[in-house]
Amino acid sequence: DTMRAFLRDLPKCEHHLHLEGTLEPDLLFPLAKRNGIELPAHFPQTVEALEDRYSRFKDLQDFLDFYYIGTNVLLKEEDFFDLAWAYFQRAHSQGLRHAEVFFDPQSHTTRGVSLETVTSGFRSACARAEEELHVTSKLIMCLLRHTPVEECMATLTDAQRMFEAGELHGLGLDSAEKPFPPELFVECYERARSFHPELRLTAHAGEEGGADYIHNALDLLQVSRVDHGVNAAHDAELMERLARDQTMLTVCPLSNVRLQVVQDVGELPLQKFLDAGVPFSLNSDDPAYFGGYILDNYVAVHQRFGWDAATWARVARQAINGSWCEEKRKNDLL
Ligand code: ES4
Ligand code: ZN
Questions:
Q1: I want to staple 84 with a disulfide (CB 3.0 to 4.6 A). Which of 72, 125, 161, 310 is the partner?
Q2: Domains along the chain with CATH numbers
Q3: Over 90: is that where the pLDDT of 113 sits?
Q4: Could you read off the pLDDT of 22-39 as tens digits, one per residue?
Q5: Is 62 among the annotated ligand-binding positions?
Q6: Going by CA atoms, what residue is nearest to atom 8 of ligand 1?
Q7: To test the ligand 1 pocket, which listed residue (286, 290, 297) has its Cβ within 8 A of the most ligand atoms?
Q8: Mean pLDDT of the chain
Q9: Is 308 annotated as ligand-binding?
Q10: What are the DSSP calls for 14-48, one per residue?
Q11: How far is the CA of 318 from the centre of ligand 1 (A)?
């Protein structure tokens, strides 16, 4: 319809996308076979059964259990390339222009897959996306907050050269929010900041965790962006702070429904953020698991909020302005 076409043609930027979360069931099973990986006995055996199970996640942890099993089928550089290239093509067909994408090195290095293998495959896909699709991108390495801090520190050491070379653009923090608050990772973020003066910092906070998680990510980790962050809406002082500093929240509507953060997209505090001047972007998080890519998230929001064209242009502009790309690229997108 015309609204979907309008939203498709908006210049969209995505800032909250886990590359491992783009593993579609129809790639998961062939990769498991190609790499001789045996899936657990309880794992659904067909694409249809798996998709059906994905539509019934109880909460974040229930999803993560599936997400980490899926991740196990990724072994070779070409697996990482195929995964990311499939994502870029699909998102491009939905009007994506720029993506800042997460990956979880620890979920691969603990299986004997080197960081170099992972990033080489991803970087090749990013280069091809820029050449062929004119989609620009940045890689953000995430630390798994359910793992010991010493392992996170070792992962940072492993990645130091790539941060220094600008091959990795930012650091994030993901996996189960509770009971792993931001304050556990202060030394990791300090260490990362020492690698490069322009290294960008973000963290998942305020999806499962309360507004205190967001305060602590800002104060203690010194992040310049907050992933999810929807629980900021419960804290008036925090809302003022986010608006004053123009700190962007990377909101993931379909993810929040699938993981039962809200029962319906209409419950998200998006109008409240707009009215308060708190910038946000709309993102797909783990599109293979949550039933939609970036445009599907825009459409779902439109169905509940019914914003006019000027408001949608403002939402798109906020996402461009909150991007970590070069000013020249931002101006091209605006
Ligand atoms: C994630 Cl939705 C979400 N939250 C936390 N960690 C994640 N890793 C992949 N998706
Ligand atoms: Zn996420």
A1: 125
A2: 2-324 (3.20.20.140)
A3: yes
A4: 999 999 999 999 999 999
A5: no
A6: 175
A7: 286
A8: 98
A9: no
A10: E--BBGGGG--HHHHHHHHHHTTPPPPTTS--SHH
A11: 23
